[in-house]
Amino acid sequence: MGAKKSARARVSELRELIRLHDRRYYVDAAPEITDARYDGLMRELIELERAHPDLVTPDSPTQRVAGEPSGGFETVEHAVPMLSLDNTYSPDELLAFDERVRKRLDGEDVAYVVEQKLDGVSIAVRYEKGVLAVAATRGDGTRGDDVTANIRTVRSVPLKLTGPGSGATVEVRGEVFMPRSGFDALNRKREEAGESLFVNPRNAAAGSLKLSDPSEVARRPLDVFFYQLMGGPSLDDIATHHKALELMAEMGLPVGPDTALANDGRDAVKKCLRWQKKRKKLDYDIDGMVVKVDSLEQQSRLGATTKSPRWGIAYKFPAEAVATKVLDIAVQVGRTGKLTPVALLEPVFVSGSTVSRATLHNADEVARLDVRVGDTVSIEKGGEVIPKVVAVDRSKRKGRPRRFRMPESCPVCGEPVVRSLGEVDTRCENVSCPAQVAGSIAHFAGRGAMDIQGLGSALIAQLVDTGMVRDYADVYSLERDELAALERMGERSADNLLAELEESKGRPFARVLHGLGIRHVGARVAQVLAENFADIDEIASASEDRLAELEEIGPVIASSVRAFFDSRRNSEAVAKLGRAGVNMKRGSASRGGARERGALAGMAVVLTGKLDGRSRSEAREAIESAGGRVTSNVSKKTDLVVAGRDPGSKHDKAVALGVRIIDEEELDRLLG
């Protein structure tokens, strides 16, 4: 055998050995060789690749930290949206979920898989022909940041799949986290170096994934557990979620330990309560358990809402509560004008971070708790995220401190505040209130609305503070010179922003409506309004009764829409948008015509695979504008499947059910 062939054979052998021992150490937690022996194998491989550069491949173990520092992260669109689980907080709520599942399945028996809910960062990792190709964060569920170079440095993530997945093209989803032991060691090193300390393991993991230098990420003690296998031929013979987890483990992917099968809802509750007692023994943080329907066929029939799957739910553990003192009660004003009383506290450490403020929600909650300045209170984090006051220790109250009263005027703009009959929230309805302006502009510019990416929070704060904008409509009056003069802007950034603003004027009518920030009007309700009214003037003049008649609207939303347009300031802002050239009409279709008479009227459409000509959200908008309804799962009720590149199991299921399948080019023809 020649020297070249000998080197190639040895390189291949070394890679397989190193992958094997990586799995034994990082995934199976059962190392078979010493660190010195492992280092010797790695050194030999490095030397051979240096001598023969043409033998270096992207999946080689030597390439884990080969990426160059990046100046930012590209955006990756998820082939299938990364939905968020709904939460339950008690055994009764979990049993209610079980009842809903069985009702939707016409009373069938249902088994569940119970998994640990890690407190980490969600990621999606795509393998093409068994080799790691792309890794992305959850982002907004539709698009996330490309963190491929950083994920390649996480030792427990295989660069190449093994066993049954050695040549597979699949996507797996999981959670990146930092073990407590690694977190403590990292903070000790930072303290010795005089650097700021991380607050908790989750923040440390999230911050590490956003570092621009992969070599720095490699020095962070990150780990990962994968919990879902998405599509691909690997799922053809898999009928249950727990079998999919077993297959992932055979592929060399680390899956969560102690995953358990539950025979029914009550058994799932028992397993959740068992982990609630012993979670502190783990070397990583979990804030609950995840309960999933085991049968993949039942999962498919259950489907999902626009935000969450109906076949899975999170059981959140009770929050940790600690005592501290109330120094004052302030009132803050949010984007929608809601006034929220906030307790200013003596700083206290709660569930991984120091807390000095806690929400009191509304005036009724303050009265119910009877919390007053100077009181000793119990604080916990709702969902282990948002600090809130849960109880007052009246035995420690001194004297007769005054009861809290909600102000009669906005503490920011001075306008009178309103509390509608039957509602608990007090609101400032002045859309030009400075406290609301920044939040409303951020919402208007968000991805789900006008998608003006150059209009970030820091720039918005400057625009509001300098008085350059008083509402979201004013952003279209900004001039190049005044923008360029702002801190950290310059002429090039000003030109880019003005170009984005000009492009945003042509956004679909539904997205403009969503961007207005009308209370209770999210993306779906905005779509319903856009389908039923020709333009903004028709909506603005519609009566409450006319609005409430619409499917998915109802009296509460109708009242909110009517109140929005009855406000002089809101109407002025909307009029300014129209004068600026923002799209304020549905288009050529008559009222209700899109859903009733479009090319895809009444059709249930499923998107699968990667589309080349448009993003998935753009495809959804186009289909809905043509009267179609985009669903997430293929069933006998599906009318059409649009298959892009690498369509996966949805395509196969459509073939099996005889559902019509078209490509993107044919979709274009249907849409005209």
Question: What does the secondary structure layout of this molecule look like, with pairings?
Answer:
Blueprint lengths: L2 H25 L7 H17 L23 E3 L9 E2 L2 H14 L7 E7 L2 E8 L2 E7 L5 E3 L2 H4 L18 E8 L2 H13 L8 H9 L4 H4 L5 E8 L10 H10 L9 E3 L2 H14 L7 E8 L2 H7 L9 E5 L4 E13 L4 E13 L2 E7 L3 H7 L6 E7 L3 E8 L23 E2 L7 E3 L5 H11 L12 H9 L14 H5 L5 H15 L4 H7 L7 H10 L3 H6 L2 H5 L5 H13 L1 H13 L12 H5 L6 E5 L7 H10 L3 E3 L8 E4 L5 H9 L2 E3 L1 H8 L1
Helix pairs in contact: 1-2, 3-9, 12-13, 16-17
Structural summary, described in words:
The chain is α+β, with helices and mostly antiparallel strands. It has six domains: 3-63, Orthogonal Bundle (Helix Hairpins); 87-316, DNA ligase/mRNA capping enzyme (D-amino Acid Aminotransferase, Chain A, domain 1); 321-396, OB fold (Dihydrolipoamide Acetyltransferase, E2P), CATH 2.40.50; 434-504, 5' to 3' exonuclease, C-terminal subdomain (DNA polymerase, domain 1, Orthogonal Bundle); 509-580, DNA polymerase, domain 1; 599-671, 3-Layer(aba) Sandwich (Rossmann fold), CATH 3.40.50.10190. The protein is 37% helix and 19% strand. It contains 25 helices and 22 strands. Strands 12, 13, 14, 15, 16, 17 and 18 form a seven-stranded antiparallel beta sheet that branches. Helix 1 packs antiparallel against helix 2 (35-51). The model is unreliable at 66-71 and 588-597 (pLDDT under 50).
